[in-house]
Write a structure and sequence with these properties.
Oligomer: single chain
Radius of gyration: 21 Å
Largest sheet: 11 strands, antiparallel
Number of strands: 17
Strand order of the largest sheet: 3-7-8-11-12-13-14-15-4-5-6
Helix content: under 10%
């Protein structure tokens, strides 16, 4: 489940699987709360928005230049097998992810009278979401410690909580009361739409095949069915929380059935809260965890952008240095060199 924050003007906070993290709600996680009601959208407003699953491919190519090189496959007979294999791969990945810590750099444009860029050339990602084409890009960069921690969810289900701390391991205030905090969290499991158990909540369409960063991929569009709020985006509006269904496109490796790129958008605009767009583009990379003999696929670059009639905004998240997060014990001699009185000190690895 994603979360979105509206603070006077609009800010975004996606949080997959309904996890706000202890920094936002120390006493209670979202998984323990009742789901918010759907955002107020009329049937006319819903029907006026064409989903990626229904829209003709030439129109999608106009919206997303990265689809221009797609090799169209009008036959849908492969789709069921692709979804089944992808669901199995993601279920295995979800079970293998241990407690992790990573370096997270969050970049946001510096407001000014000009349009400035946040550079995306660092890893050569072919994202449609270049934040701007200005060569004189200016942005504010903040580095956090990003944590992925396994926890207990409803009905005994194990979930992944995602949150961030500062460089001194102190939880940050990423609530709407803090305008300086980043507005996005929870990208590690954005592919929950493709879990076998969750596929019933969406419609899918095989758009074709495409080579992306040396990967041969299947390109699959999806759109949530309205009325299935479990994986919706949650919006914290001035009038209270509400939820919005999503749609998107995923690039699935043809050999491994791992999602290597994903884009999510709102299924339709929400005029009642002045929200016209929320777009998240994620690129995943292979992450080795040698202590466990694991190779995981985790977020590498994430770009989030939003738009209201009055203002638009964006954030870029860069993830690196994934490693195990836990406690180990180191035995130290005491000051009096008394071996019978060992001391221990916690370490993070």
């Amino acid at each position: 489940m994603n979360r979105l924050l509206l603070i006077a003007v609009f800010f975004a906070l996606p949080a997959v699987l309904a996890q706000a993290g202890p920094s936002a709600h120390p006493a209670q996680t979202e998984s323990q709360q009742s789901p918010p009601p759907p955002c107020a959208v009329t049937q006319v407003e819903q029907s006026a928005a064409a989903s990626f699953v229904d829209e003709p491919l030439p129109e999608l190519k106009k919206q997303f230049p990265s689809l221009r090189t797609i090799s169209v496959d009008p036959e849908q007979d492969q789709l069921t097998a692709i979804l089944d294999k992808t669901g199995d791969v993601l279920a295995g990945l979800y079970q293998r992810i241990p407690n992790l810590v990573a370096r997270e750099e969050v970049r946001r444009p510096i407001p000014s009278g000009l349009s400035f860029a946040i550079p995306l050339a660092r890893r050569g990602g072919n994202l449609d979401a270049t934040l701007d084409d200005s060569p004189n890009g200016r942005y504010r960069s903040t580095v956090y410690v990003y944590r992925i921690v396994r926890g207990d969810g409803p009905a005994g289900m194990e979930i992944l909580n995602e949150f961030r701390t500062d460089s001194h391991d102190h939880p940050i205030d990423d609530s709407g009361r803090n305008p300086d905090s980043p507005r996005n969290v929870g990208f590690a499991t954005s592919w929950l739409f493709f879990f076998r158990a969750n596929q019933i909540e969406s419609r899918f369409r095989l758009l074709g095949e495409q080579k992306i960063d040396k990967h041969d991929t299947y390109v699959v569009a999806f759109a949530q069915n309205p009325g299935r709020e479990r994986l919706n985006t949650i919006v914290d509006a001035p009038t209270g929380q509400c939820s919005i269904p999503s749609q998107g496109v995923a690039w699935i490796n043809q050999s491994t059935y791992q999602i290597i790129r994903m884009q999510t958008d709102l299924l339709f605009p929400v005029p009642s809260i002045h929200l016209s767009q929320l777009r998240t583009i994620l690129e995943y990379s292979e992450v080795p965890i040698p202590e466990r003999g694991l190779v995981l696929w985790l977020p590498d670059i994430v770009k989030n952008s939003w738009r209201t009639p009055a203002i638009s905004g964006e954030e870029l998240h860069l993830y690196s240095h994934y490693r195990l997060f836990g406690s180990t014990v180191r035995v130290l001699p005491d000051a009096a060199a008394m071996p019978s009185s060992p001391q221990t000190s916690p370490q993070t690895r």
